[in-house]
Amino acid sequence: MAADPEVAGTRAQGRGARLFTWEEVARRSGREERWLVIERKVYDISDFARRHPGGSRVISHYAGQDATDPFVAFHSDKALVGKYMSSLLIGQLSPEQPSFEPTKNEALTREFRELQAAVERMGLMRSNHLFFLLCLLHILLLDVAAWLTLRVFGTSLAPFLLCAVLLSVVQAQAGWLQHDFGHLSVFSTSALNHLLHHFVIGHLKGAPASWWNHMHFQHHAKPNCFRKDPDINMHPFFFALGKVLSVELGKQKKKYMPYNHQHKYFFLIGPPALLPLYFQWYIFYFVIQRKKWVDLFWMLTFYARLSLTYVPLLGLGGFLGLFFIVRFLESNWFVWVTQMNHIPMHIDHDRNVDWVSTQLQATCNVEQSFFNDWFSGHLNFQIEHHLFPRMPRHNYHKVAPLVQSLCARHGVEYQSKPLLAAFADIVHSLKESGQLWLDAYLHQ
After folding, report:
1. Which of 60, 69, 125, 403 makes the best surface tag, with the fewest CB within 10 Å?
2. Quick one: pLDDT at residue 53?
3. CA distance 429 to 343
């Protein structure tokens, strides 16, 4: 669709030049034209999407829709963002247009916005810097302990395996900490968060911050939405995910894998393989293909540091073996923790429901305990994290009762389960969706 010349002209005329309906906005969701609504104001992001600091895809996922709540959730510095937005404003909704699209729960959204304001007043968006300092220090101490294990006790099997376990803990915990910096939830200024994000994900883990931003913000914008959430991109080529998509795949007579056995082969190509066999090489392709040279520099400092500290002790072969074992252990840890909150939940195409419903139907919690909090980097509070993605994780447990009350008043299911039950539900859901696919494939 060619750009509307009348609309292009009104952009230069200033604020309030035109009035629009929701239907007009909804039609601008393709490749040529992309509009979205924030607080009843209509913005044309067609050209800006490519320059969007958070990535073109995450903002484009809301093209044709109201983006008020994700805008508030993701952006801390509204004044800075306003400088970008003023040139994109092309009008506003007509006075007779409702403030909410018909697919969204108005009462729930209004009360959630009140809760957001209350959370700000309670100071729950402010971080405890000492907490995050201790998180970083415990990672660095474990990193040193891993090297000292080989240096002091030698390179026989027992200290070698202990070193691998310690390094796996370092990698997993650094993964949770880089997640904090990536969400801008530690410091009040974005620059400090970005700097520490590069240090933790790049120097401590050997991965690019730009890749994480590109993938993870899409996941938060539209969790479990097919073709919008990259975390479920393994559907349909490896797994049939969710009841709706699995039946749809079966009716289309598509079979890329024997999905009725996916709950079995998940143990082979899921937790053990994701990091060592996929992410490990893809992250280099990503930074080189997109020319992210700063990320590549930080990544190379990780591999240089690791090589300089372990090759002299183990030799090149021993070092490569250690590295593979660490990635293998970390991969199992990472996949089970990150998938327990999402794979068993509702997976579908984007139905453009409200922010709270979008997050609650795609996420669940795992019961709180000191171990669960540490083991998952507080992502056992996945619901609270998705509703308030910039909230420091040490405050999740404080806002959780308020979120539960909100859900209870509006009949929204709030799921929380034991850790092992959450792990088991991944397998159970894969078995169920695989069977749904088979029934549709054979009989519909």
Report:
1. 125
2. 87
3. 7
